[in-house]
Amino acid sequence: MHRVCFTLRVDPTRLDEYRARHADVWPEMLVALRDAGWRSYTLHLAEDGLLVGVLETDDLAAAQAAMEATDVNRRWQAGMAEFFPDLADGRADRGLRVLEEVFDLDAQLARHGEATTS
Questions:
Q1: Residue 40 and residue 94: Cα distance in Å, rounded?
Q2: Which residue in 1, 114, 115 sits closest to 55, CA to CA?
Q3: Residue 10 C-alpha from the chain's centroid
Protein backbone atom coordinates (compact mmCIF):
# COMPACT_ATOMS: atom_id res chain seq x y z
CA MET A 1 0.00 0.00 0.00
CA HIS A 2 1.22 3.49 -0.85
CA ARG A 3 0.42 6.77 0.82
CA VAL A 4 -0.13 9.60 -1.66
CA CYS A 5 -0.13 13.32 -0.94
CA PHE A 6 -1.32 15.84 -3.52
CA THR A 7 -2.16 19.51 -3.81
CA LEU A 8 -4.73 21.54 -5.69
CA ARG A 9 -5.78 25.18 -5.53
CA VAL A 10 -9.39 26.03 -4.63
CA ASP A 11 -10.82 29.45 -5.53
CA PRO A 12 -10.14 31.34 -2.27
CA THR A 13 -13.38 33.32 -2.61
CA ARG A 14 -15.42 30.09 -2.38
CA LEU A 15 -13.87 28.24 0.54
CA ASP A 16 -17.00 28.16 2.70
CA GLU A 17 -19.03 26.65 -0.13
CA TYR A 18 -16.25 24.14 -0.85
CA ARG A 19 -16.24 23.09 2.81
CA ALA A 20 -20.03 22.79 2.81
CA ARG A 21 -20.01 20.51 -0.24
CA HIS A 22 -17.51 18.22 1.46
CA ALA A 23 -19.38 18.15 4.77
CA ASP A 24 -21.87 15.70 3.27
CA VAL A 25 -20.49 14.05 0.12
CA TRP A 26 -22.96 11.96 -1.88
CA PRO A 27 -23.05 8.40 -0.49
CA GLU A 28 -22.70 7.06 -4.05
CA MET A 29 -19.44 9.02 -4.44
CA LEU A 30 -18.10 7.73 -1.13
CA VAL A 31 -18.81 4.13 -2.13
CA ALA A 32 -17.23 4.67 -5.56
CA LEU A 33 -14.04 6.02 -3.99
CA ARG A 34 -13.87 3.10 -1.57
CA ASP A 35 -14.54 0.53 -4.27
CA ALA A 36 -11.92 2.13 -6.55
CA GLY A 37 -9.24 1.64 -3.90
CA TRP A 38 -9.06 5.04 -2.20
CA ARG A 39 -8.43 4.43 1.53
CA SER A 40 -7.86 6.73 4.50
CA TYR A 41 -8.59 9.66 2.15
CA THR A 42 -8.57 13.10 3.73
CA LEU A 43 -8.58 16.66 2.42
CA HIS A 44 -7.02 19.63 4.24
CA LEU A 45 -7.80 23.23 3.24
CA ALA A 46 -5.79 26.38 4.00
CA GLU A 47 -7.32 29.84 4.09
CA ASP A 48 -5.48 30.82 0.87
CA GLY A 49 -7.14 27.97 -1.04
CA LEU A 50 -4.30 25.47 -0.86
CA LEU A 51 -5.90 22.02 -0.76
CA VAL A 52 -3.82 19.06 0.39
CA GLY A 53 -5.12 15.54 -0.05
CA VAL A 54 -3.74 12.39 1.52
CA LEU A 55 -4.82 8.86 0.69
CA GLU A 56 -3.62 5.29 0.75
CA THR A 57 -3.98 3.05 -2.28
CA ASP A 58 -2.32 0.05 -3.85
CA ASP A 59 -2.03 1.80 -7.22
CA LEU A 60 -2.91 5.48 -7.72
CA ALA A 61 -3.22 5.23 -11.51
CA ALA A 62 -5.58 2.25 -11.21
CA ALA A 63 -7.63 3.99 -8.50
CA GLN A 64 -7.93 7.09 -10.68
CA ALA A 65 -8.89 5.00 -13.72
CA ALA A 66 -11.55 3.18 -11.72
CA MET A 67 -13.06 6.52 -10.66
CA GLU A 68 -12.84 7.87 -14.22
CA ALA A 69 -15.06 4.99 -15.33
CA THR A 70 -17.91 5.94 -12.97
CA ASP A 71 -20.87 8.14 -13.76
CA VAL A 72 -20.95 9.53 -10.23
CA ASN A 73 -17.39 10.83 -10.60
CA ARG A 74 -18.26 12.59 -13.87
CA ARG A 75 -21.24 14.27 -12.18
CA TRP A 76 -19.20 15.19 -9.09
CA GLN A 77 -16.33 16.63 -11.13
CA ALA A 78 -18.74 18.66 -13.27
CA GLY A 79 -20.34 20.12 -10.15
CA MET A 80 -16.99 20.90 -8.52
CA ALA A 81 -15.22 22.39 -11.56
CA GLU A 82 -16.24 25.93 -10.60
CA PHE A 83 -13.99 25.70 -7.53
CA PHE A 84 -10.86 25.09 -9.63
CA PRO A 85 -10.54 28.02 -12.08
CA ASP A 86 -6.79 27.40 -12.51
CA LEU A 87 -7.40 24.00 -14.11
CA ALA A 88 -7.98 24.11 -17.86
CA ASP A 89 -10.93 21.71 -17.75
CA GLY A 90 -11.85 22.25 -14.09
CA ARG A 91 -11.34 18.55 -13.41
CA ALA A 92 -9.65 18.34 -10.02
CA ASP A 93 -9.30 14.57 -10.40
CA ARG A 94 -7.04 15.17 -13.41
CA GLY A 95 -5.14 18.11 -11.92
CA LEU A 96 -3.62 16.51 -8.84
CA ARG A 97 -0.06 17.63 -8.18
CA VAL A 98 1.38 14.57 -6.43
CA LEU A 99 4.14 15.37 -3.95
CA GLU A 100 7.22 13.25 -3.38
CA GLU A 101 7.44 11.67 0.06
CA VAL A 102 10.82 12.54 1.58
CA PHE A 103 10.34 11.33 5.17
CA ASP A 104 8.51 8.43 6.80
CA LEU A 105 8.87 8.16 10.58
CA ASP A 106 7.76 4.52 10.76
CA ALA A 107 10.10 3.43 7.96
CA GLN A 108 13.09 5.07 9.60
CA LEU A 109 12.23 3.76 13.06
CA ALA A 110 11.95 0.24 11.62
CA ARG A 111 15.26 0.62 9.80
CA HIS A 112 16.90 1.37 13.15
CA GLY A 113 15.19 -1.53 14.90
CA GLU A 114 12.84 0.72 16.87
CA ALA A 115 9.13 0.21 17.48
CA THR A 116 6.95 2.03 14.99
CA THR A 117 4.02 4.29 15.82
CA SER A 118 1.48 1.84 14.34
A1: 20
A2: 1
A3: 13
Amino acid at 27: P
Q: How far apart are CA 30 and CA 72, in angstroms?
A: 10
Q: Hey, which residues are catalytic here? A: 22
Per-residue pLDDT of the chain (118 residues; tens, 9 = 90+): 899 999 999 999 999 999 999 999 999 999 999 999 999 999 999 999 999 999 999 999 999 999 999 999 999 999 999 999 999 888 999 999 999 999 999 999 999 999 998 7
Q: What is the rounded distance in angstroms from the CA atom of residue 41 to the CA atom of residue 64? A: 13
The answer, as to whether pTM is greater than 0.85, is yes
Sheet with 97-99: list strands edge to edge.
39-45, 50-57, 2-9, 97-99
- Residue 10: phi, psi to the nearest 5? -90, 145
Side-chain half-sphere exposure of 92, counting CA atoms within 13 A: 24
- Please tell me the CATH code under which domain 2-111 is placed: 3.30.70.100
3-state class (DSSP) for residue 8:
strand
